[in-house]
Amino acid sequence: MKEIKASEEDLALKEMTIPTAKEAQEQARARTLEKEEKLCEISRVLAVLASASSVSRDREEFLRLVNLEVI
Predict the structure, then answer these.
(1) What is the pTM assigned to this prediction?
(2) Tens-binned pLDDT, residue by residue, of the chain (71 aa)
(3) DSSP state of 52
């Protein structure tokens, strides 16, 4: 009887600590949004740096490549 009760407690503990599929999906979505925000911030910083460049053709090509990577 003790073994059954112990295994039930272990199972209940596992169920509490394992995220549900919905929670896992939400966590993955949150991580994805964070990564997208970081990429957008990097893109903005790179755009500022590129705009300071005196070579407009290179700047435009660079921004085009950056935007392709972000999108």
Answers:
(1) 0.49
(2) 455 555 666 776 677 667 677 888 899 999 999 999 998 888 888 887 777 655 677 778 888 888 887 76
(3) T
CB 66 within 8 A of CB 48: no
Looking at residue 1, what DSSP letter applies?
-
SS3 54: coil
Q: Residue 12, Cβ neighbours under 10 Å: how many?
A: 10
Spatial contact of 47 and 63, defined as CB atoms under 8 Å apart:
yes
Q: What are the sequence ranges of the domains in the chain?
A: 2-70
